[in-house]
């Protein structure tokens, strides 16, 4: 499951008993050697499926910078990554010296009308459903009119599959852990279905469509467009 350079079981245990921020600070030096990093196949398929080229790009919850490679491939102007883990940002800075990296809570993004494209990879499970509207509203605010917010979503595995029961077991384990241990570590795989995400995106002011990525697991790219007009009220 992990490469020889990945974290040990002890290191993963310490991370799991930490807060999300502290856990990722600890994991950052070895994060790219774990299965938690978004695979290159998904990154490459996302870059290929994005409609055209863009100006400035924003990677929301950029981690060690895997998504910055997508932005650098499709954006003609400087790109920005935002994350609340100083450790992850330090790793991203080493690999992407040309990017602007900002430490911030993405539930309160400090941007307004600055970007043409925003992306995120593998991060939405770190937000409870009640927290997602603030994230999506912040992304909407950060984009220029007509800007695009894009991210990949895999189809739920069939109930007869090992993947389904593994995800269910992981989510149940996390709920038990968070019920008996503080600080909480929020990471749930079953709270980010495409219908639920679409509802929250539309409530934030996006129009939503999807494009197939042609990858195993029936991955789709969510393409959420910020309206070009200003809503009354």
Automatic annotation (TrEMBL):
Query: Which residues does UniProt call coiled coil?
Result: none
Please indicate which superkingdom the organism of origin belongs to: Bacteria
Q: Which GO terms describe its molecular function?
A: methyltransferase activity
Residue ranges of domain Methyltransferase in the record: 58-147
A biological-process GO annotation? methylation
Q: Name one Pfam family in it.
A: Methyltransf_25
Does Methyltransferase appear among the keywords? yes
Q: Record's SUPFAM superfamilies?
A: S-adenosyl-L-methionine-dependent methyltransferases
What are the UniProt keywords, alphabetically? Methyltransferase, Transferase
Q: Which residues form the signal peptide?
A: none
What is this protein's record name? Class I SAM-dependent DNA methyltransferase
Species per Swiss-Prot/TrEMBL record: Paractinoplanes rhizophilus
Q: What is the lineage of its organism?
A: Bacteria, Bacillati, Actinomycetota, Actinomycetes, Micromonosporales
